[in-house]
Amino acid sequence: MPKVIWPELTAPLIRKAAAADLPAILQIECEQFSNPWRLEYFAAELANSFSNLFVVENSANGALIGYLLFWRLGVELELHKIAVAKAWQGQGIALQLMEFLIQTARSWGSERVVLEVRAHNTPAINLYEKFAFRGVGRRRDYYDRPLEDALLYELVL
Ligand SMILES: CC(C)(COP(=O)(O)OP(=O)(O)OC[C@H]1O[C@@H](n2cnc3c(N)ncnc32)[C@H](O)[C@@H]1OP(=O)(O)O)[C@@H](O)C(=O)NCCC(=O)NCCS
Predict the structure, then answer these.
(1) CA dihedral angle for residue 26, residue 147, residue 131, residue 37, rounded to 10 degrees
(2) Where do the domains of the chain lie?
(3) 8-156 CATH
(4) Predicted confidence (pLDDT) per residue in 33-67, tens digit
(5) Ligand 1 within 6 A of CB of 32
(6) Which of 12, 16, 34, 36 has its CA 20 to 30 A from that of 42?
(7) How far does the centroid of ligand 1 lie from the alpha carbon of residue 123, in Å?
(8) Which atom of ligand 1 is nearest to the CA of 2?
């Protein structure tokens, strides 16, 4: 279960992202990734019919504290980004985003959720394994800055 520590009325809100959210998304992106996407990449996702970009905001003040990006490709969902601002990490926000992702996948009748993750990204790997994702492969030297293997994970629904 998520480690929810907020009072009921100020619980974070997950909602679809809009163009006005892009600067705040980019701020977290640059804080959390060694090779961050540029703003244009996120803008392109908003215009992409199979892409789904959601944000989580602090409902007390509207501040953006995380985001989730996934593609719906037939019966498969591909998770491309999940990130939480440093100040909000370790408080169950990613657990809520993953629950939202899996609930969405089930409600759409998806058969599986797939993702790639850096081989040394322990927080993310622990998060995915907590939701019973299983390792199904490895891509050598898939990432750069720094060069690193990708692990492929899958959750069959
Ligand atoms: C991975 C990430 C999204 C987790 O966000 P978070 O809100 O801090 O995570 P939560 O507090 O919801 O923790 C959920 C679970 O994730 C794992 N986890 C989170 N932070 C961890 C850490 N520092 N070390 C080890 N495991 C960790 C744990 O399994 C945790 O559950 P537990 O505390 O019951 O053991 C966050 O660290 C992040 O934004 N990282 C940078 C972006 C990234 O690498 N994204 C993944 C690739 S796209």
Answers:
(1) 20
(2) 8-156
(3) 3.40.630.30
(4) 999 999 999 999 999 999 999 999 998 898 999 99
(5) yes
(6) 12
(7) 4
(8) 12
